[in-house]
């Protein structure tokens, strides 16, 4: 039996999924609060439409129910690694732009960045249960920040946070799918086979 | 004098009660035209036009299947109504999550708890229209009141509300209970379920005491009604949605596996 199919691995997977679901839930609440703060502090319209931004992982997915567990984890991990870099950029830009004038926004950004990093690590642990482990991050960094005006950077930040909020919802759903026991089994299916 | 008229702006509503499968839109005219009308609906998601499959009955409804989930792109639904005298239209724009509203919980049952005059046990089922409660769990909200009072007490998924029995011997005779449901993460609360009535267990046949008589004559007044003590929020870990169970204790209302026990 493959290591990922052993009962102890299945139990570990389910435990990690449960904790991951709680992390995702907390993260979503904080991102929604951060969105409100960001819109207000940046003087934006909350209903403004933001076109898809290069380098921002899009949560939207087709045939979501047909994805395997491994696909879900890999897509989630790629997304949160990207968000980690994007939020770090936003934090840097916010400090340059507003400095100490808006420490609250900076703290909120930093807090969400921490949660995103923790969630990415959590996903790596889940992928460790797979025989091949998580992909390396070499060359996986975000594209260099494009040269944008201040207003364009603000809109880009709005797009980042909106997609992150959607990802937090999607991640909880993905982890619940992964944690589901397969029919006729009391343990969760291996990630390669689980839809 | 002709009563026939061109259509006024139609009333359009869209809702997902079976997330993540899809959503439906339904419509009607605010006033009759007295001549045949035809309805045309278009659904746009980003740059993609989606098919809204009309129901055979009722005729003023159609269904859309979600092709994508977790999208931040809004849906735009436009309904146009046309008759021999003119046309009118209306448009709704919304997020995928904004229209998610489950149907009310089903099979709500409230029963007395033997040998416990201060408790009732309430159970319910997920709405049958909700396709995958395991991946998309619901959370619940319960409200109850004595039959003869107007003020509801509310109990959220993991909250407890306790109250002392008002009026002396052990609370009111009969209660009305209703339950509502919501996706754990998105959307809005369902309508309240069908109301159920229940009477707590009593040791002997009920007879009115002087104290109870005084209480009943003043039942419309809240001055003799003790508000519930401060609710206690359960550990999130203890909360599970749908027919599953959340157990949180105080001296009062307990939300338990398939049950709510309250004093």
Automatic annotation (TrEMBL), chain A:
Function: CNTF is a survival factor for various neuronal cell types. Seems to prevent the degeneration of motor axons after axotomy.
Protein origin, superkingdom: Eukaryota
Cellular compartment(s): Cytoplasm
One of the protein's GO biological processes: ciliary neurotrophic factor-mediated signaling pathway
Family that this chain belongs to: Belongs to the CNTF family.
Pfam families associated with the record: CNTF (PF01110)
Family matches, as Gene3D superfamilies: 1.20.1250.10
GO cellular component: axon; cytoplasm; extracellular space
Gene Ontology terms for molecular function: ciliary neurotrophic factor receptor binding; cytokine activity; growth factor activity
Keywords from the named record: Cytoplasm, Developmental protein, Differentiation, Growth factor, Neurogenesis
Protein name as catalogued: Ciliary neurotrophic factor
UniProtKB/TrEMBL annotation, chain B:
The organism's place on the tree of life at top rank: Eukaryota
Major location category of this protein: membrane
Domain Fibronectin type-III: 104-205
One cellular component term from this protein's GO annotations in UniProt: ciliary neurotrophic factor receptor complex
Membrane topology summary: Lipid-anchor; GPI-anchor
Pfam name, any one: FN3_IL27B_N
SUPFAM superfamilies: Fibronectin type III
Membrane spanning stretches: 238-261
GO molecular function: ciliary neurotrophic factor receptor activity; interleukin-11 binding; interleukin-11 receptor activity
The protein's name in its UniProt record: CNTFR factor
């Amino acid at each position: 039996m493959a290591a990922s199919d052993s009962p102890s691995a299945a139990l570990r997977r389910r435990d990690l999924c449960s904790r991951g679901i709680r992390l995702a839930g907390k993260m979503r609440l904080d991102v929604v609060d951060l969105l409100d703060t960001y819109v207000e502090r940046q003087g934006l319209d909350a209903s403004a439409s933001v076109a898809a931004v290069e380098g921002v992982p899009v949560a939207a997915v087709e045939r979501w129910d047909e994805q395997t567990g491994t696909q879900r984890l890999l897509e989630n991990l790629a997304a949160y690694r990207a968000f980690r870099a994007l939020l770090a950029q936003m934090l840097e830009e916010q400090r340059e732009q507003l400095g100490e004038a808006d420490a609250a926004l900076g703290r909120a950004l930093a807090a969400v960045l921490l949660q995103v990093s923790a969630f990415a690590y959590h996903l790596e642990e889940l992928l460790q249960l797979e025989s091949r482990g998580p992909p390396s991050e070499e060359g996986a960094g975000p594209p260099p920040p494009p040269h944008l005006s201040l207003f364009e950077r603000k809109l880009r930040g709005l797009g980042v946070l909106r997609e992150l909020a959607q990802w937090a919802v999607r991640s909880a759903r993905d982890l619940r799918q992964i944690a589901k026991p397969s029919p006729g089994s009391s343990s969760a299916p291996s990630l390669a086979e689980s839809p | 004098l002709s009563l026939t008229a061109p259509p006024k702006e139609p009333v359009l509503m869209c809702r997902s009660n079976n997330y993540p499968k899809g959503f439906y839109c339904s419509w009607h005219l605010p006033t009759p035209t007295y001549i045949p009308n035809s309805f045309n609906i278009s659904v746009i998601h980003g740059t993609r036009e989606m098919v809204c499959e009309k129901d055979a009955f009722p005729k003023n409804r159609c269904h859309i299947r979600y092709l994508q989930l977790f999208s931040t792109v809004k849906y735009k639904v436009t309904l146009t109504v046309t008759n021999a005298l003119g046309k009118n239209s209306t448009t709704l724009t919304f997020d995928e999550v904004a229209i998610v509203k489950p149907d009310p919980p089903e099979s709500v049952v409230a029963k007395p708890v033997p040998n416990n005059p201060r408790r009732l046990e309430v159970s319910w089922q997920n709405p049958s229209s909700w396709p995958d409660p395991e991946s998309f769990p619901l959370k619940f909200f319960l409200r109850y009141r004595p039959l003869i009072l107007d003020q509801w007490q509310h109990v959220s998924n993991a909250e407890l509300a306790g109250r002392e029995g008002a009026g002396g011997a052990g609370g009111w005779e009969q209660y009305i209970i209703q339950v509502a449901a919501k996706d754990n993460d998105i959307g809005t609360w369902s309508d309240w379920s069908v109301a159920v009535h229940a009477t707590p267990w009593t040791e002997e046949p009920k007879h009115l005491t002087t104290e109870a008589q005084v209480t009943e004559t003043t039942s419309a007044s809240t001055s003799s009604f003790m508000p519930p003590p401060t609710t206690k929020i359960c550990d999130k870990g203890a909360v599970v949605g749908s027919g599953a169970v959340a157990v949180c204790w105080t001296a009062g209302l307990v939300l338990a596996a398939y049950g709510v026990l309250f004093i």
